[in-house]
TrEMBL record, chain A:
Protein name (database record): Gldg family protein
Domain ABC-type uncharacterised transport system: from-to ranges: 176-495
Any single Pfam family the record assigns to this protein: DUF7088
Recorded coiled-coil stretches: 529-593
Automatic annotation (TrEMBL), chain B:
Residues in coiled coil: none
Lineage: Bacteria, Pseudomonadati, Pseudomonadota, Gammaproteobacteria, Alteromonadales
Membrane spanning residue stretches: 12-38, 50-73, 85-118, 130-149, 161-183, 220-240
InterPro entries cross-referenced by the UniProt entry: ABC-2_transporter_component (IPR051449)
Compartmental location: Cell membrane
Protein name: ABC transporter permease
UniProt keyword Transmembrane helix present: yes
Organism, scientific name: Alkalimarinus alittae
Keyword annotations from UniProtKB, A to Z: Cell membrane, Membrane, Transmembrane, Transmembrane helix
Main localization of the protein described in the UniProt heading: membrane
Length: 632, 244
């Protein structure tokens, strides 16, 4: 030992130890980690563990990763390594039900063909443009197949959700059944205005990937027993018979998701009635029993969450307080349905009130900001300029509930049953009174009068589902390419998955939070806009007054007996013209000021971060020198 | 252990008697601020994280750490005070460790003085402070690795300038080892395990892993092995030179 520590051999030995240890440590000590992230992003959740321990049928996973071709991409290799470790961890937790294997699809090999055939995405890299594969194919014993076409490193936070979902779907091949009753053309339809067939809404397509979606007929006695979740979209003027069927579905413990709307933009009435027809949907008899009510003829106006819309035709974009872009601040972050969602856009949203003395629990899922006020829904019918909604807008300081989850005990809305009038002659039934030749009355008797725990989610907007609020659809060589810009569909899918009883899966989704915007900057921007608006109004009024006075004077000059103005009047005219120019300049200045606060904040922070501590240190140094001199 | 502590205190105190330490810290702070805000476009990105700050830390270290490490031993050797040091009742290991710890703590102080950027990001938004903590820890561990290299080089030469440049070059190699353009040179002929090995020797690979917010035992071990091996090498070098 003494010798080694004193000779050059020692240096060589150290070098060898260093290399061997660094290489070894990368292979040994797998999976010992301290996860310091806020959401424990890199630790397998209890939900995943639960799903894995409850796997019914065996699942096989094959990870395709191009080892050789990615030699120059250490970042991607590290990520692939992590995925491998993660999959090993999955396999350990699944107790033999999960088989994991790793494949290197070398170019022109059978494995490469296999990967392409399974739908994995080959990405060309490097000078030679070799395609690399980094995807996963999962299979179950009943020929089901699920694929992750490429693991994108920037989506690392969601990788656990993606993997667990894939495994869950493979072990539970049967899709939950969603029954839909819709008052709008969610499934496409014929547009009389353009004389063209409209495609189905994108949300339908998204739902069909994950659920067995079945449109239900109206006027039915009961909802099909196979339906797991009932989805009501804009239920307008439903017959008592249908309401009864829905009531009984809920009373029997059926999960229900309702979208109602005080003013559904998508519900376009035939042209002659456009200005007058009601576009409101409600489920009031049922809502009353469930402990909520949709506020009559009101939509919510919300300044903080409002969106700016482009008016086209060279006009400036304007703020529309009936059109809401809601983000984390508006969402109930305690509820799994809102988990992982970042922004949802709504239009002309209704307000849900709780009914006094209700036996249910109503938990808000989405709420407006404190700068909101209920507005007359009728004002939207002939709305030319969205800015006019701002007139007489005075926030009430109250937050309004826009979507809510309802649980707890509720009674049937039809304890006495419902009388149905029908055209056909039906067979004799108890309780049917004397029938007319064609019209027959029939009494539907409820099976269940009370449920101790109903499961309903109500949303006071139907436009949330329409394409224009969340997704851009483009035709690309006959294919529909959709690119979402808000999480509206995510909300719908979350809610359906949650109601389908798949809560474990949703909890995993909640962990990812990739966007953390500067809230302070956003606040500043809003404040500036608020100020700008008030100032602009004042200036605009001044300008109008000045212009009116100018006009008045012009008229005096034109129409008066003496065509020439007196000196005093001429001076006055010049003064008004000057003022007009001045006000217009001020207006422009105010507009420039909008961004000034944010810019100056940025500059201030730059200066503080670069100079503050060095400056303090310098002061300290000078002070210490000074003290030392005094002492010395 | 006492010997280590005494050396450490003496060294640490010596940092603050000359304006040199002050100049290093000020340059480090100002450069990190400029890099974060101008090159990293921290404010314009609008995201409440410190990625634009930590991305530049390894490159800042390339200048700062060799500058601090160069005077660890070269100066003592040049002025002959090393003889004096060796007559004290402390072992070489204690001296090496003491000097290293003092410099490491000093860099820790410099790192802590970047706190305004942490305050800033918390003022602007809601960052994941766990990730930031892990990144700071990773930065400090990485500084330890850089410093151990510098300590060894400094022990081998009498010239501070040579020590500075040599340390910078070696550290640069260790930072760059994970870079595609470096690995390119190997892909044609080297086996895969060697390429993986080279990239796993890089500071960047391990620092990036830690700054995601997960402290992996392997990353900790890497920095630990790095530091321990280079410090042992320092001891050997001093022993050999002493014998000369």
């Amino acid at each position: 030992m003494k010798n080694i520590m004193h000779s050059k051999t020692g240096l060589i030995v150290i070098l060898a130890i260093f290399i061997v240890f660094s290489l070894l440590s990368a292979r040994l000590f797998n999976g010992v980690r301290f996860d310091l992230t806020e959401g424990q992003l890199y630790t397998l959740t209890d939900e995943t563990q639960k799903i894995l321990s409850e796997l019914d049928s065996p699942v096989t996973l094959k990870l395709y990763f191009s080892e050789k071709a990615t030699a120059e991409l250490p970042g991607l290799r590290t990520y692939a390594h992590r995925i491998k470790e993660l999959l090993d961890e999955y396999a350990t937790l699944a107790d033999g039900k999960l088989t994991v294997s790793f494949v290197d699809p070398i170019p022109f090999s059978e494995e490469e063909d296999e990967a392409s055939a399974a739908g994995l995405q080959g990405v060309p890299v490097g000078i030679r443009g070799d395609e690399i594969f980094f995807g996963l194919v999962g299979t179950n014993d009943s020929d089901g197949e699920e694929v992750i076409s490429f693991f994108q490193p920037d989506k690392e936070q969601f990788v656990e959700y993606e993997l667990t979902k894939l495994i869950y779907n493979l072990s539970n091949p049967e899709l939950p059944v969603v029954g839909i009753i819709s008052g709008v053309n969610i499934n496409g339809g014929f547009d009389y205005m353009t004389q063209q067939r409209q495609p189905a809404w994108v949300v339908m397509q998204q739902m069909e990937d994950l659920f067995d979606v079945r449109p239900l007929a109206e006027d039915i006695d009961a909802i099909d027993a196979e339906v797991d979740i009932l989805l009501l979209v804009h239920p307008k003027d439903l017959s008592e018979q249908t309401l009864f069927a829905i009531d009984q579905f809920v009373m029997k413990g059926g999960r229900t998701l309702v979208f109602v709307d005080p003013f559904a933009e998508a519900d376009i009435p035939p042209a002659p009635m456009a200005a007058t027809a009601s576009r409101r949907s409600d489920l009031s008899p049922l809502f009353a029993e469930w402990g909520i009510a949709l506020q009559d003829a009101h939509i919510v106006g919300d300044f903080i969450n409002s969106l700016v819309v482009n008016m086209g035709g060279g006009r400036n974009p304007v703020r529309h307080i009936g059109l809401l872009g809601l983000d984390l601040g508006a969402f109930n972050d305690q509820d799994v349905v809102m988990a992982g969602l970042e922004s949802i856009n709504l239009s002309s949203v209704g307000i849900l009130d709780t009914v006094e003395g209700a036996t249910t629990q109503v938990v808000p899922l989405i709420q407006s900001s404190i700068e909101s006020q209920p507005l007359e829904a009728d004002r939207l019918k002939a709305l030319q300029n969205p800015e006019s909604l701002m007139e007489s807008f005075t926030p009430t300081g109250k937050q309004y509930t826009l979507a809510a989850r309802i649980t707890g005990a509720a009674n049937s809305a039809f304890p006495e049953g419902v009388e149905v009038e029908e055209r056909q002659v039906v067979e004799e039934e108890p309780g049917v009174p004397e029938a007319e030749p064609v019209m027959v009355k029939r009494l539907l008797v409820p099976d269940v009068l009370k449920n101790d725990n109903i499961n309903v989610i109500v949303v006071a907007d139907t436009d949330i589902l329409s394409d224009r609020l969340w997704v851009q659809v483009q035709q690309f060589f006959g294919q529909r390419v959709v690119s979402p810009w808000a999480d509206n569909a995510g909300f719908l899918i979350n809610a359906l998955e949650n109601l389908a009883g798949n809560e474990d899966l949703i909890n995993i989704r909640s962990r990812g939070r990739f966007s953390r915007p500067f809230t302070k900057v956003e606040e500043l921007r809003r404040h500036a806009e608020e100020q700008f608006l008030a100032q602009q109004q004042v200036l605009q009024e001044q300008l109008e007054q000045t212009e009116a006075k100018l006009l008045e004077m012009e008229q005096i000059r034109g129409g008066g007996d003496s065509a020439i103005l007196s000196e005093e009047q001429a001076l006055e005219l010049a003064r008004f013209q000057d003022e007009k120019i001045k006000i217009r300049k001020e207006l422009r200045d105010v507009q420039h000021q909008l961004d000034r606060d944010i810019e100056s904040l940025g500059t201030e922070l730059k200066m503080i971060n670069i100079f503050l501590v060095p400056l303090l240190l310098t002061l300290l140094l000078v002070l210490m020198r000074f003290i030392r001199k005094r002492v010395a | 252990m006492m010997g280590t502590q005494i050396i450490m205190r003496r060294e640490l105190a010596s940092y603050f008697t000359t304006p040199l330490a002050y100049i290093f810290i000020v340059i480090f702070l100002m450069m990190s601020g400029v890099f974060t805000f101008y090159l990293g476009r921290f404010f314009e990105r609008g995201q409440a994280d410190l990625i634009s700050f930590f991305n530049f830390i390894p490159w800042l270290y390339l200048i700062l750490v060799p500058a601090i490490a160069m005077r660890l031993w070269s100066e003592e050797r040049k002025s002959g005070t090393i003889e004096l040091l060796m007559t004290l009742p402390i072992t070489v290991v204690q001296a090496v460790l003491g000097k290293f710890l003092a410099a490491w703590l000093f860099i820790g102080v410099a790192l802590m003085l970047t706190f305004p950027v942490w305050v800033t990001v918390n003022y602007l938004g809601e960052p994941d402070n766990g990730v930031i903590l892990a990144s700071y820890l990773g930065s400090w561990l990485m500084a330890g690795g850089f410093l151990a290299i510098g300590s060894c080089v400094s022990a081998a030469t009498k010239s501070q300038v040579v020590a500075f440049i040599l340390t910078l070059v070696i550290c640069f190699v260790f930072v760059a080892a994970g870079f595609p353009m470096v690995l390119d040179a190997f892909t044609e002929w080297a086996p895969l395990w060697l390429i993986d090995g080279i990239s796993s020797l890089s500071f960047l690979t391990h620092f990036d892993a830690v700054s995601r917010g997960v402290i992996d035992l392997r990353d900790l071990l890497y920095f630990l092995i790095m530091t321990v091996c280079w410090l042992t090498a320092t001891t050997i070098v001093i022993n050999i030179k002493k014998a000369d």
